[in-house]
Amino acid sequence: MPKAEQNLPVETVRIDKWLWAARFFKTRSIAKSAIEGGKVHFDGERVKVSKEVRVGMELTIQQGFEKKTVIIKAISNMRGPAPIAQQLYEETEVSLAKRELLASQRKLHNLARPDHRPSKKDRRQISRFKQENDQQFDQHWSYNDD
């Protein structure tokens, strides 16, 4: 295909090619695998790789923990720089709010867990603490044959 024909505006393009051009996935084969794996939906239904996308369609795309709902604003079959790729779609307000809420919940969950293994000093303190509690328990609770 000559270079001049590639730059012409298009009205429809395959969904795997659009997802790649919009930089949701690094390669078309990864986009294809995600579509086949049920990670991309249109109107609540799974789509096929050959699905043609048009301006105004609403897609739900799941990538790892994140689930995005986007509205297609423009069609492109060429991958460009990230700022231009972000102009191809708009994420819905509900989707943004939900993703921010889930991200903050994951962050809080990670704060509740220690971020390192106990050091040798920490293990000695834990061991000492357990021994003291066992001794106190044994002193207060003893079996009596009265």
Automatic annotation (TrEMBL):
Q: Where is the composition biased (Polar residues)?
A: 134-146
Q: What CDD domains has UniProt attached to this entry?
A: S4
Here the segments flagged for biased composition (Basic residues) are 118-127
Which GO-annotated molecular functions does the record name?
DNA binding; ribosomal large subunit binding; single-stranded RNA binding
Pfam families for this protein? S4
Which ranges carry the RNA-binding S4 domain? 13-76
SUPFAM superfamilies, alphabetized? Alpha-L RNA-binding motif
As for family, the record states:
Belongs to the HSP15 family.
Its recorded name reads Heat shock protein 15
